[in-house]
Amino acid sequence: MQVSRQSATETLNEIASFRPALKSILDAFAPLLEARDALAQEVMADLKNRQITLPACQASRLSLGVSLLSDQDLPDLGDSYAKVAQALVPQLEKIPALSQLPTPLAQVFQALSVEEQKTLCEAVCTNSPKLLTELATKYQLDTLVLNLAASFVVSTLLRGLCKASFEADQEKPWDTNNIWQKGYCPVCGSYPVLAWLDKPVIDERNTYLHEGGGRKHLYCGICGSDWRFLRLACPACGVSQSRQIEILTEETNTHGEALDWCTKCKSYCPTVDMRERINIPHLDAQALGMLHLELIAWEKKLKPLRASFWNTFA
Ligand SMILES: [Zn+2]
Ligand SMILES: [Zn+2]
Are 307 and 127 spatial neighbours (Cβ–Cβ below 8 Å)? Predict the structure, then answer.
């Protein structure tokens, strides 16, 4: 059977069919996720034309757990910040927290200096809204509001940059020989928004080559990268002790969805098992579609590995 990769809207519609109570919120975010995907493609094409890519990955740095961007500046993205912001703003303004701001977002992103662009990127990748305090004051914005808008703009740019730098569907340098062992992103350093377990791989030319699937990958909701990770380890603590990870899931009709949570640090990560899905879900849409489990996690006083727009302003 041909397996297809779903668009954001296809995944959100599928999840809404499992879970009608979430339909209105999923529908509300579909245009924003679609706009980000389309814009990341445009950024990719633009950067490829200008031959702008990320610096090359070095195995020695990866083996020490140093993310590609942790101590390196982004290449100069020129007017891409303003272009992306301009195109995303109409969608961003549909989020209640981002409508009717004292300074319109398009104006803020248009005015950013190169230093301010770097600050925005660092704040988003390290999940440190406090870095934006000065900038937020300058534009009379709430720090968390600026951080939310920045996370969409920066994530669109970084996704475009990653697409321009690495071939899709090819093994990434950080997965070669499992050199990357960390729970944070090898490119931008963010914690993942989702984990996924892969489908079995069947090589029709060689029936002896058959992998059973179920390997764990973590997915970065900022730069869109994914990387392999130990199945039973906690991405935040980095260690795996027996019974450290517990699984929270619905009793029936799970559709492969669960939350893995760590009994030591109380952080959780939504997880989807692709073996229980016919088509490959869109990962950002899938992460958004697991709100029902995040609500249970919130009641249990667990915290997300990476705060997202839906669990920050819920
Ligand atoms: Zn990343
Ligand atoms: Zn932990």
Answer: yes
Q: Which of 81-85, 236-240, 293-297 has the lowest mean pLDDT?
A: 236-240
Tell me the CA–centroid distance for residue 236 and ligand 2, in Å.
Answer: 5
Number of domains in the chain: 2
**pLDDT at residue 202, as a whole number:** 63
Q: Is residue 70 part of a domain?
A: yes
* 2 pLDDT above the threshold of 70: no
The residue range of the domain holding 86 is 24-165
| Contact present, 273 and 259 (Cβ < 8 Å) | no
The pLDDT of residue 271 is above 90: yes
What does the alpha-carbon distance between residue 272 and residue 270 come to, in Å, rounded to a whole number? 7
- Residue 49 Cα to ligand 1 middle (Å): 23
Ligand 2: centre distance to CA 254 (Å): 24
pTM of the model: 0.93
